[in-house]
Design a protein that fits this description.
By secondary structure, this protein is α/β, with parallel strands linked by helices. Helix content is about 35%, strand content about 25%. The protein is built from six helices and eleven strands. About 45% of the residues are buried.
Length: about 240
């Protein structure tokens, strides 16, 4: 083997090792208990804990979970900034949110977290893969609020996986400990979405599995949406 070929294989090995050691930096937010009683939900805090534990068990992740009174607007933004700023180029930054949603914002404990604030916090990270999972009414509105995103800039993949269309509610289902979207999202990430059985869940596999099951369970009253700048084959998680 020539020196140039040997050097190429060494560089390739180091590059693969770097990618293999990549980490997920995950912030999970869930609100069931809002101030007062009128806006309370049943399982949204459970949703955040469920997804947080899933990534912890999967390994290779730093996971932070904020629920109920912990999930103030300032605390959520500060946690995202702190956690995401530690990610390197080959890492992935992830936000999971479950709670009330509006057209243009998530409802935190003390106010509205604008969609634009989420993407701005993610921009502080060097990570080239950025994922948002939102289990909230009208979360599909993130598409219209991020239309300036066009093309893959600087190799960055940005994916929004949203529980419902812009005008749809995100449904809790009697008998489940999680909302419909989160229930199937969790199952999908644990391997049920692995259609080709390569122990890797791609964006397309995850969407197909979650979307079809949510639509069926809710009798076509809820339609998950996946949107952004990414390849369908992009790896979401290895299990």
């Amino acid at each position: 083997m020539t020196i140039s070929k040997r050097l190429f294989h060494i560089v390739l090995f180091l590059a693969c090792a770097t990618v293999a050691c990549a980490k997920n930096y995950v912030v999970c937010v869930g609100l069931s208990d809002y101030p007062g009683y009128a806006n309370d939900l049943t399982v949204s805090a459970n949703d955040a804990v469920y997804i947080a534990n899933l990534f912890k068990r999967n390994g290779g992740a730093e996971v932070y979970c904020l629920t109920n009174h912990q999930a103030t607007v300032s605390n959520v933004k500060a946690t995202m900034r702190q956690v995401y700023s530690r990610a390197s180029v080959h890492d992935t930054v992830i936000l999971f949110f479950s709670g009330h949603g509006f057209n243009g914002a998530f409802r935190c404990y003390d106010g509205q977290l604008q969609y634009s604030a989420v993407t701005e916090c993610m921009k502080l990270s060097d990570a080239r893969k950025r994922l948002v999972f939102a289990d909230a009414c009208m979360s599909g509105g993130m598409r219209t609020n991020n239309r300036r995103i066009s093309g893959r800039e600087n190799g960055i993949s940005l994916m929004f996986f949203l529980s419902s269309r812009t005008a749809e509610p995100s449904r809790e289902v009697f008998g489940l400990e999680n909302s419909a979207f989160t229930y199937f999202l969790g199952k999908g990430l644990k391997g049920f979405a692995d259609k080709n059985q390569d122990r890797t869940i791609s964006a397309r596999e995850l969407f197909d599995y979650v979307s079809s099951n949510v639509i069926k369970l809710t009798y076509r009253r809820q339609h998950p949406v996946m949107w952004g700048n990414f390849n369908d084959s992009m790896t979401i998680i290895r299990w």
